[in-house]
Amino acid sequence: MTEEKTVVTTDFIRNIIAEDLKSNKHGGKVVTRFPPEPNGYLHIGHAKSICLNFGVAEENEGGICHLRFDDTNPEKEDEEYIEAIKRDIQWLGFDWQQKEYHASHYFEQLYQYAIVLIKKGKAYVCDLSAEEMREYRGTLKAPGKNSPYRDRSVEENLDLFQRMRAAEFEDGSHLLRAKIDMTSPNMNMRDPALYRIKRMTHHQTGDKWCIYPMYDYTHCLSDSIEGITHSLCTLEFEDHRPLYDWVLDQLEVECHPQQIEFSRLNLEYTVTSKRKLGELVTSGSVSGWDDPRMPTVSGLRRRGYTAKAVRNLCKRVGISKNDSTTDMALLEDCIREDLDSIAPRVMGVLKPLKVVIENYPAGQVEELQAKFHPKDESMGSRVLPFSRELYIDESDFEEVPPPKYRRLTPGKEVRLRYGYVIKCEKVIKDPETDEILELRCTYDANTLGKKPEGRKVKGVIHWVSAEHSIEAEVRLYDRLFSKASPDSGKDGSDFKEHLNPDSFLKLTGCRLEPGLLGAKPGIQYQFEREGYFCQDHVDSKADKMVFNRIVTLRDSWAKMVNQK
Ligand code: ATP
Ligand code: MG
Fold it and tell me: The motif 'HIGH' region: which residues (predicted)?
């Protein structure tokens, strides 16, 4: 990542941290954390948070970023997600340097802190039902009412809380609540719940606990226990900050981290919410969390995105407090930019149309030289077999060409990339269906690496030798949703109703240049004139190669939308 680091970026959070370092506010330290809840796979929004938290730690000497699993809700969490999250962070190029923590490992300590709050008269056990709670809570316009249990004695609270832990009560029958202010304009301060009873096996602590601490209570204390200096989170936590600070102030903890909020990354034509992405998985709308259309880190990886492109997107989006939605074109631009310089060029014909070169001897094979990269000599070159029978792409031939058509048409010439100029002499059709079966062409033997004499040939098309090419399946992807913001259900629609029915197209019988035979997954190629592709590391096999289209060469979507 050294190359990227030379570009100094700054933002309001980095400025705050720089100031804090100058004034020695946190003892000259920078300790951040990335705190995912292991209830799903990471998405591109998380990548932004990862780049920020780990980035800030890397940029400051001695800085460190903890990986903390915020696992207070066993209902939706799973070990599988923990492993996936770790894999994704590593792939993105970041290292938590063995500072892996789990909020659940603090359960005993958190329980003891709750006892301190009770003893200070700052927390009480409440027996209101969920429905009554709602009623007492008030609304944004109306203040709430004190719970009838609010003035229980410290002794009674201690006894009840201990019995909550000892599983003497039903799930949901009691809560431990903070005693703050039921009239606060900030709903989060109206005696929020700190602990609830839930009999549920936890992936880390098993059946040891039947009470679980709530997120707001757990998060600030976990930060404090770990000596976090700057607790960076997204804007929706702004209203929770007073509670974050209240808990730490009441407990007079030694380390009181500073919470700073920044805006989420949202991406057009997709959703960035684990819950919604999970719904797509369970409803079978996609093939899994790593479906190449998903905005998950694992989906992007499987699709063929590079970590550098994802990091670059996060950098371009930047850190601010302004809510915004990022244009999908920006993400695509980032991957094109990276792949343009690193992807070897190869030829792949997605929709093969047979071409027979009538004046080329049957059985003869020539080896044509082609560079892997037009600008990067160090990538070397490959050999392309040329023979009497070739495949070109269906879309590179028009019987009745539109104006300015530069590809193959009857009676006209076109150049084969790295090869000869050919001329279409005849179109062979199925007499019944009128379908084009093959083209009969001739080649000009005097045009290899040379301009044809006395005429101009402008078009260049890609091709493969029929006999030598290898067969592959190619998967084309498009936007997962056909609506730019499928999330905003103002019209009452379910976000899944906006799924793009044409987001996945499977092409079989595609033909690739022979050098790709046996190529290992993990390399992004440019299929010349078609786009960037990489092997699907899940479904591709040595004898049945499957390629994913990462992105087209140009943004064809913007054009299409404008035409509509
Ligand atoms: P989701 O709504 O997708 O479930 P979350 O906030 O509940 O997201 P967490 O696992 O709690 O997911 O998130 C871990 C960290 O990533 C948090 O600090 C959160 O603020 C941050 N984060 C989550 N979504 C985004 C996003 N879209 N943009 C930037 N940061 C995000
Ligand atoms: Mg969350």
Answer: 36-46
What is 120-151 written as a DSSP string?
A: TT-EEEE---HHHHHHHH--SSS-----TTTT
| Domain housing 33 | 12-102+217-329
User: Is the pLDDT at 2 greater than 80, yes or no?
Assistant: no
With cut-offs at 50, 70 and 90, classify the pLDDT of residue 242.
very high
* pLDDT exceeds cutoff 50 at 158: yes
The pTM score is 0.95
Q: Is residue 521 part of a domain?
A: yes
Q: Which ligand is nearest to the CA of 33?
A: 1
Shared domain for 222 and 207, answered yes or no, is no
490 assigned to active site: no
Provide, rounded to the nearest whole percent, the portion of the chain with pLDDT above 90.
Answer: 94
In a domain, 341, yes or no: no
> Is residue 8's pLDDT more than 80?
no
CA of 45 to the centre of ligand 1 (A): 7
Cα–Cα dist 409/253, whole Å: 79
The answer to whether 156 is a known catalytic residue is no
User: What are the DSSP calls for 430-472, one per residue?
Assistant: -TTT--EEEEEEEEEGGGTTSPPTTS----EE-EEETTT-EEE
Mean pLDDT of the chain: 95
